[in-house]
């Protein structure tokens, strides 16, 4: 837990538009609940036999960059002081479920960058909603957006 024992609001960040919206929603709740926010980007790289990994590529650094970029998109050059960020190695759903222990809330976008495989196997947000030990908010749009402006049509993805 961060910020002198207050329960944090955990936000899963993958760089998608909806994870940026989740950061903005988390800030609204954090302000109302006087809670700190922890933005987490999880990375899990497993090399398959016979594949080539670029020598200079560092998945931990890439996750940190995703966090910086998402925070910049969400809040500009000055993210709120109560927001801290971490890049964590592990499967995203498990990392976020584990981070939910002792958290006030977990905030996630309804869909991230999972693509077709994510639809077949189940998404991080679905796994977290089913298994997180704290309340989970699934974000479908930025705060204040009109229904027609949503990033995704909610009637087709329930």
TrEMBL record:
SUPFAM superfamilies: Adenine nucleotide alpha hydrolases-like. It comes from the Bacteria. Residues 7-140 form the UspA domain. Belongs to the universal stress protein A family. This is Universal stress protein.
